[in-house]
Amino acid sequence: MLKLLKILLPVLALSAGMAQAQTVEAEGAARIETSVALAKRMALQDAIRQALMQASARISTTTVTTRKGVVADNMRFSAQGRVTHVAILREWTDENHYYVKIRAQVPGDELMQALLKAEQEGDNAARPAHWRDNGNAEAANRYRRKVAVSQFHVLDRTQIHDLPKIETELARELERRLISDGRVLTVNASQYLLPLTEEGVISQRRILGALPPAREPHQVASEFAESLGVQFVVTGVIRDMSVSNHFLGRKMRHLELDLFVHDGISGASVARHRVSETVEENTLSELHPSDTALMSEKFFASPFGQKVDQMLDRMVELIVSDVTSQPFTARVIRAEGNRVYFDAGGLANIRVGDVLNTYKLTEAPVKDFPGQRALGYAEKPATSLIVTQVQRLFSVGELAEDTARLAPGDVIRFEP
């Protein structure tokens, strides 16, 4: 009979009850093959693994015995956990290899559990069961985009006399559901009414709210997004909420909305959707009781509220699909030589050791042939950036090439 014994033994034990981060130094190496920048990335990742091994290494032994004695005795080293800060102390090369020496902070067991729990829960409550982080292959989906949801326009205010402030309540409820969904980060911008053309393009100079006018009409969407620290702007138009008479004295209420998603870097339109519902009941009071607070449990129990509920869920799926299909992008907020700060952090699932591409943006937008319409900003590839520190709302990275320089407003982007 075969007997299998598995024993987990700590090699480098932490001090009793330790919950603070350990500071360790480690070296990593990688062979220089296609490029020095890639070798640096691999060497840094190797150094991070070595730091984890020093701080929380484990030995897993497997012993298989028979009546004749031991027939197999295997041993495996592994490391568990994650580093939270990395400082590169030294870099050097020889003919074939790139070497990196780092100083890293590795949380103790209790602190790591707390960090992982906070990362899973975040500020946004529970994530849905169908959303999972599947590692590097799903890195593009692992990064969480940040979205601002602004107030809805109303084409005919006489149609909403019994629905006070529906234009702001819709935006707030949509943002709340995006929070509960958990696949994107959100900012409540329901106090702002963005200027829209008939095509749903944000192109005028002034935003109704506390923000100053944009320098140019085409910059209003990008400046609005930059002021709120988001990557996408969502707004919409209430096209129809009229009530009409149906046969046999029945009432019919219409609900037709346009939903717009804009890119916060270029200001360009990403997607436009029209969603509509119609609800029919004997009396208007059955459609929507007049004493019911909007977006309350009682409101959603009414026939009209049930249709609004379905539309809001549909809009959440549309928004998530639109923004997650776009490349993950963040802005540079500070640059100190080859050390760069950008506005995405732990809440966006940025991790130490991640590698992103960087781009310098032109100051003037590219316009169409008549010169009347801004099409976005030209991008000049700079170099790759290796993330070395992660805070909740921002991260710090080092540029792979010492000669490259970025400035606030330039772009950090993940591209698989």
| Beta-strand content | 35-45%
What is the H/E order? EEHEEEEHHEHEHEEEEHHHEEEEEEEE
Number of strands: 20
Which range best describes the helical content: under 10%, 10-25%, 25-40%, 40-55%, 55-70% or over 70%? 10-25%
What is the global morphology?
A: elongated
pLDDT average, as an integer?
77
- CATH H-level homologous superfamily name of the largest domain: ABC-type transport auxiliary lipoprotein component
Polypeptide structure, described:
By secondary structure, this protein is α+β, with helices and mostly antiparallel strands. The chain folds into three domains: 3-121, no CATH class; 147-324, 3-Layer(aba) Sandwich (Rossmann fold), CATH 3.40.50; 329-413, Beta Barrel (Thrombin, subunit H). 23% of the residues lie in helices and 37% in strands. It has helices spanning 36-56, 109-121, 139-142, 166-181, 220-228, 284-287, 297-301, 303-324, and strands at 3-10, 22-31, 57-66, 69-79, 85-93, 97-106, 146-154, 185-189, 232-240, 243-245, 251-263, 269-281, 329-336, 339-342, 355-361, 366-367, 374-376, 379-390, 395-399, 411-413. The strands form five sheets. Strands 7, 8, 9, 10, 11 and 12 form a six-stranded mixed β-sheet that branches. It has a six-stranded antiparallel barrel with strand order 13-14-19-18-15-20. Strands 1-3-4 form a three-stranded antiparallel β-sheet. β18 (379-390) and β19 form a beta hairpin. α4 crosses α8 (303-324). The longest helix has 22 residues, at 303-324. The protein is elongated. Mean pLDDT is 77; it is low at 1-19, 64-68, 70-78 and 122-137.
